[in-house]
Amino acid sequence: MPTHPAIALPRLIAHRGFSAAAPENTLTAVTAAKEAGVDWVELDVQLLGDGTPVIWHDADVARCSDGHGLLSGLNWEKAQGLDVGRWFGDAFSGERMASLDDMLALLDRLDMGVNMEIKVNKGRDPIALVDAVMPALLDGLAPERLIVSSFDTAALRRCREFAPAERLALGALYGAVPATWRSDCEALDVFSVHPHWPRLKRTQADAIRRDGYALLCYTANDPSAFHSRWAWGIDSAITDEVAVFARYLDNQPT
Ligand code: G3P
Ligand code: MG
Question: Domain of life, per the record (predicted)?
């Protein structure tokens, strides 16, 4: 097992920022997470058509903006013309798509950690994405404040070429944990495994923990349904509902 950055994992990580309270993947959603008492967020990063890294989940902009079309069809100027808040509520009208650089500056200012998901949507190039974002991530965040995850193995492999395990914590993202998880994780020297929580089996959780990996599960929004899983050794729940989860945990007997 290689040495990894000394990451103090939180119980809760705000999925796409505090996305139950603010438009996902925005500066406002990250600020809302901090205000709710959560110091770590999960965010998605991908590239505009002109190569600018932005914080965005979908392949297109229809769901989360007042525009339409593929992200890959936009340059920075066009992207900044979109309102990415009003779809969520009038109070968020005027919110603009965040660049990776703007987001890193905010995370630094708020003293927050990030699980940055390298989001390789269909037809996009994982290598170009990693090459564009990795220098900024390594420059912008201390090793203890950064976990880079992806469903895309080629992307993770490329990330590892930028920095060794002691400098860069990588996370293997899965739906159901596949039979190959152990060899995948060893080959990439990952720090953590990130399964879809309802599909994780107890035996898999035990094996993952026994092998020394951290275990971060997404996307858990009902704290009572998730409750029994804490005993499986899960380190962190990635949740849209940080306030609901935090309240629930606060009310548990110690
Ligand atoms: O990183 C956990 C989770 O965000 C993965 O799925 O689709 O919400 O990015 P998605
Ligand atoms: Mg994500």
Answer: Bacteria
The one-letter amino acid code at 240 reads: D
CA angle 227, 229, 232 (to 5 degrees): 145
Range list of β-strands (E), 32-93: 40-47, 53-55
Q: Per residue in 148-183, pLDDT tens? A: 999 999 999 999 999 999 999 999 999 999 999 999
Position in ligand 1 atom list of the atom nearest CA 119 = 9
First to last CA, the chain: 32
Instruction: Enter the tokens of residue 90.
Output: 């009038």
Percent of the chain exceeding pLDDT 90 equals 98
Structure tokens at 51: 């190569």
- The residue to mutate among 25, 42, 217, having the most atoms of ligand 1 within 8 angstroms of its beta carbon, is 42
* Residue that the structure tokens 């190959």 belong to: 180
3.20.20.190, 3.10.450.50, 1.10.3720.10, 3.90.79.10: which CATH number matches 12-61+100-250?
A: 3.20.20.190
Residues whose beta carbons lie less than 5 angstroms from ion ligand 2:
44, 117
Judged against a pLDDT cut of 70, whether residue 100 lies above it is answered with yes
The residue type at 47:
L
Cα 113 vs. chain centroid, distance in angstroms? 10
CA 221 to CA 207: how far, in whole Å?
Answer: 25
Six-digit token pair at 69? 């079309």
128 contact partners, CB below 8 Å, separation of at least 6: 47, 51
